[in-house]
Structures are given as C-alpha cells and as structure tokens.
Write a structure and sequence with these properties.
This protein has one domain. The radius of gyration is 11 Å and the shape is globular. The protein is mainly α. It has 2 helices and no strands. Keywords: Transferase. This is GNAT family acetyltransferase. One of its GO terms (molecular function) is transferase activity.
C-alpha cells in the first residue's frame, strides 16, 4: 500500500454501509485503518 492510499482507504472504510451487518465498530481512527492496511511482512 502506498502512503497516499491510506486516506482514501480510511474514507471508504468509514462509510455507513461498509460494515452493515457485522459486529465491527461503526467507525475507526485513521491510525487504526492505516495499521490494518499496512503490510506486516515482505510477502504482503
């Protein structure tokens, strides 16, 4: 993921219908979404 993509992913992730019907929290912070989308190993 590119650093510039993090803000766009954050905007999509916090849309009202993105997680409807799930047990996820309704809104996440920018840092939480960025950490979720950041690769954790060289293979990711």
């Amino acid at each position: 993921m590119r650093e510039a993509d993090a803000s766009d992913i954050y905007e999509m992730y916090n849309q009202p219908a993105f997680r409807s019907g799930t047990l996820a929290l309704p809104y996440e912070s920018f840092e939480a979404v960025k950490a979720w989308a950041t690769p954790r190993s060289p293979r990711d």
